[in-house]
Amino acid sequence: MAKINLLVLFGGVSTEHEVSRVSAASVLSRLDPEKYNIIPVGITKAGQWFLYGGCDSDAVSEGRWETAEENLPAILSPSRGDGLLVFGKGKVAKIPVDCVFPVLHGLNGEDGTLQGLFEAAGVAYVGSGVGASSNCMDKSVTKILAGQYNILQADYILVHKSEFAKAPDDAVTAAEEKFKYPVFVKPSSSGSSVGVSKAKDREGLKSALDEAFRYDKKVLIEEAVDGQEIEVAVLGNDEPIASVPGEIVPSREFYSYEAKYIDNSSGLIIPAGIPEEASDSARKEALTVYRALGCRGLARVDFFVRRADFAVVLNEINTIPGFTSISMYPKLFEASGIKYPELLDRLIALAMSDK
Ligand SMILES: Nc1ncnc2c1ncn2[C@@H]1O[C@H](COP(=O)(O)OP(=O)(O)O)[C@@H](O)[C@H]1O
Ligand SMILES: [Mg+2]
């Protein structure tokens, strides 16, 4: 079989730039070079695209790739058939692209922006399309859509930045009328817990709102769900499959950025320590949500299992979840019998068959 020209995109203009590099280093080092011509393209934090001239995955995870001498500016052309345009000394070369693997988390990568470019370019790509990517990125939209399918979710208030700027006390008062402290405050479109806070009183809520509005024009104030945090990995297009649920045991009061990436002591337990009934309903709900939002390829669907009654409460959907070899998504499928390299093959095959 002919090798697939696979463009692997990493980095990006996102608060999750660093996380993307670590995910991409794993992907790059585990793709089978017998099956793929790997074309690694890094996007700097400033948004510049470069064909990475090296092949050192540590340099990708650590960010040193940016200074490799052989790097060349490159862009995926929206003009069909062009592929990747690579700008050398006074010359433009074209590298054909069969499939893109956007190993990008958060804004400008997981949110539909680049998926639009892939559509325009007419290339296959791993993961969800424009609409599903965008709807899953924006938690306020996810809530409305999932609500149509009677999926249980944390109750919330949506606050717009312009309204908050005019009358900051109104949002606080509305939250206090509706919820007891603590509440969670989060940018509607963020990830990796950037800008997410647990507010325990009025002062805390005000500063949490200020913090969240640094990252987005829309912010959610949510009731706190007391329970375990679980995650289900989903794989597929029209007939998706759901993994066993895994459980997160945060090293801090909640699964904050520090608990995710700094402490190195948050636990992942597979399978999650929850009753079988809760596990079954989480898998079922994960598939319902995946279909409802129109996801393709892959997604990780995150839930809480409420302490009081083991009810499964949707938290959020990640269409390009963390993808290091120790990340929850690949670990969950490994526990379900699909090893990391095979998972990559399946994702690429799903992308190619979906074009
Ligand atoms: N309503 C909630 N109740 C309890 N914990 C929450 C709630 N919302 C968020 N959290 C905590 O904050 C973390 C990050 O919030 P999340 O909505 O998943 O944002 P992100 O997209 O940044 O991961 C969650 O993993 C969880 O630990
Ligand atoms: Mg999350």
Description:
This protein is an alpha+beta fold and 355 residues long. The chain has three domains: 4-125, Rossmann fold (3-Layer(aba) Sandwich), CATH 3.40.50.20; 136-153 and 225-353, ATP-grasp fold, B domain (D-amino Acid Aminotransferase, Chain A, domain 1, 2-Layer Sandwich); 156-223, ATP-grasp fold, A domain (Dna Ligase, domain 1, 2-Layer Sandwich), CATH 3.30.1490. It is built from twelve helices and 18 strands. The protein has helices spanning 17-30, 57-62, 113-121, 130-137, 139-148, 161-166, 168-178, 202-213, 257-262, 276-293, 328-335, 340-353, and strands at 4-11, 36-43, 49-51, 72-76, 84-87, 92-95, 99-103, 124-125, 156-160, 183-187, 197-199, 218-223, 227-236, 241-242, 246-249, 267-269, 297-306, 312-318. The strands form three sheets. It has an eight-stranded mixed β-sheet, with helices on both faces. Strands 13, 14, 15, 16, 17 and 18 form a six-stranded antiparallel β-sheet that branches. A four-stranded antiparallel β-sheet has the order 9-12-10-11. The model has no long low-confidence stretch (mean pLDDT 96). Residues 154, 184, 186, 190-193, 196, 222, 224-225, 229, 250, 254-255, 302, 315-316 line the site of adenosine-5'-diphosphate. Adenosine-5'-diphosphate is lined by residues 154, 184, 186, 190-193, 196, 222, 224-225, 229, 250, 254-255, 302, 315-316.
